[in-house]
Amino acid sequence: MKGYVFHGPGQSAWEEVPDPAVKEPTDAIVRVGAVTICGTDLHILKGDVPEVRPGTVLGHEAVGEIVEVGSDVRTVRPGDRVLVSCISCCGRCRFCRDGMYGQCRGGGGWILGHLIDGTQAEYVRVPYADLSVHALPGAVESKDAVLLADIFPTSYEVGVLNGRVRPGDTVAVVGAGPIGLAAIATARLFAPERIVAVDLAAARLEAARRLGADAVADAAEDPEQLIADLTDGLGADVVIEAVGVPESFELCTRMVRPGGHVANIGVHGKPATLHLEDLWIKNVTITTGLVDTHSTPTLLRMAAAGRLPTAQLVTHTFPLDRMEEAYDVFSRAGDTGALKVVLGGRPHEEVAVRAA
């Protein structure tokens, strides 16, 4: 089969790789039908995630069809159409028992495209399949469902829930890429008074308006003053960081009100300065986090009911074998206008049996 392989910072290729095989009785093999590229994948290619070893197939989001399962798998079977979660969980360790699947110590957590081969391939091995894939209702299209593998649970859990968005809040979202846009869409579920999107790209700010932002601000034109003007100088109740660079994190800490919340979602590859000399007296709560995906079943039901604007985030589609072109388009989002790119066909169609 073919997969998109990381060979070191700045080096990657769509190339032949060995077919995955069942290694543990809890494994499933999934034929990938739709896959997407995450900003985290770009961080890996830049060298920001040193745990990823050269030779690893990238990707941690997919929709596909089960083609083989281990002897202990009970909840899915060959032929089932499933969502492959970005997080795998053993279900037995301390953190899994607390619903903190992203911190799994039993061989799970974020492992796909990180510690083991991932989803940007024709087939993928998914450990702990009973807990790490979700059966898909027929009403949810693959290009919509694949956005529920990572960006919607991440934005909802690490941004909106960790930030404790409440009715009547002023919410600022710094970064209007896919994660930030999904944070805007899911923050609206809690009826804040206003949502303000901050970004450098005009196209992304326009997308933020379409997805529910009440106001937008160019990051280069003093968004702190806009927030101050909108809140009588108090600051935002919740500020969500969705970029992952020191400047954006530090901006968030300047925009939050006393007693407010800063919810960091961005993947940081460099140190950021925490100005405790200013923050210690303000009762500010700062949260970080890796998504646990405990909300995925809820978000799937909402998507099936048409309550999530998933389709609005997909700007480009490609066949799976044009992975390198898709990466190029996604990495140049400022020029191409890319939000989410989706690759692949329709996993529920009848396919030939994989060669043994």
Description:
This protein is of the alpha/beta class and 356 residues long. It folds into two domains: 2-150 and 292-344, Alpha-Beta Complex (Quinone Oxidoreductase, Chain A, domain 1), CATH 3.90.180; 155-287, Rossmann fold (3-Layer(aba) Sandwich), CATH 3.40.50. Helix content is 26%, strand content 24%. It is built from 13 helices and 16 strands. It has helices at 39-46, 94-97, 129-132, 142-145, 151-161, 178-187, 202-210, 223-230, 246-255, 276-279, 296-304, 323-331, 333-336, and strands at residues 2-8, 11-16, 28-36, 56-57, 62-69, 81-84, 123-126, 133-135, 170-174, 194-199, 215-218, 236-241, 256-264, 285-287, 314-318, 340-344. Strands 3, 5, 6, 7, 8, 15 and 16 form a seven-stranded mixed β-sheet that branches. β12, α9 (246-255) and β13 form a beta-alpha-beta unit. α5 (151-161) crosses α6. It is globular, with a radius of gyration of 20 Å. The two termini are 12 Å apart. 51% of the residues are buried. Residues 346-356 have low confidence and may be disordered.
List the helices and strands and how they pair.
Elements lengths: L1 E7 L2 E6 L11 E9 L2 H8 L9 E2 L4 E8 L11 E4 L9 H4 L25 E4 L2 H4 E3 L6 H4 L5 H11 L8 E5 L3 H10 L6 E6 L2 H9 L4 E4 L4 H8 L5 E6 L4 H10 E9 L11 H4 L5 E3 L8 H9 L9 E5 L4 H9 L1 H4 L3 E5 L12
Structural class: alpha/beta
CATH architecture of the largest domain: Alpha-Beta Complex
From the N-terminal CA to the C-terminal CA, the straight-line distance is: 12 Å
Largest sheet entry: 7 strands, mixed
CATH class of the largest domain: Alpha Beta
Rg result: 20 Å
Shape: globular
Beta strands, count: 16
Family: Belongs to the zinc-containing alcohol dehydrogenase family.
Protein name: Alcohol dehydrogenase
Cofactor: Zn(2+)
Keywords: Metal-binding, Oxidoreductase, Zinc
